[in-house]
Amino acid sequence: xxxxxxxxxxxxxxxxxxxxxxxxxxxxxxxxxxxxxxxxxxxxxxxxxxxxxxxxxxxxxxxxxxxxxxxxxxxxxxxxxxxxxxxxxxxxxxxxxxxxxxxxxxxxxxxxxxxxxxxxxxxxxxxxxxxxxxxxxxxxxxxxxxxxxxxxxxxxxxxxxxxxxxxxxxxxxxxxxxxxxxxxxxxxxxxxxxxxxxxxxxxxxxxxxxxxx
Length: 213
Ligand SMILES: [Zn+2]
Prior knowledge:
Layout: E1 4-5, H1 15-22, H2 45-54, H3 68-90, H4 96-106, E2 112-117, E3 120-125, H5 131-149, E4 155-157, E5 166-168, H6 181-202
Parallel strand pairs: 1-3
Antiparallel strand pairs: 2-3, 4-5
The structure holds zinc ion.
Zinc ion binds near residues 30, 160, 163 and 165.
């Protein structure tokens, strides 16, 4: 193996980060107040550029400039991936347009290639037309890989309707319903508790053993 060198640069993204990309529209992570339901974390092109940089989806040295048209495309791709994940979680077929867009994005993914540099064999990859195409392809690939060869049945959307954070359930039992037990999980528990109290108040036959005299 002496003469084989890995790519000088490699970038990829894991499923968790790919799901975080979807959550850039739904930052209700642990939030239960209505106004945070549709917060947009990729508000300006620079936000998207920073997200890609932070997740090493673009070359830091090359810099990445994203224009408004590209930002709109980034958001459309995010919605399409979200639709696919939602559909899988809900056990239904995704919207055909979403599937079409994800496939278009995947076409820009970089196949591995051999590069011969004198007597040294390097493993490289082909780049797409633009850094944005490359970044979106990597994100889409991480999600689609999970569907194809991973454990898609472990994909989840937080059961708190005001949150809907997308995540992968890596718990031993696979029965995680909340993005975060301390926030959304506790919120649900408190709501169930309040509902039980209300029920017992409205039920004249109910034994009010829990209420102090
Ligand atoms: Zn949540």
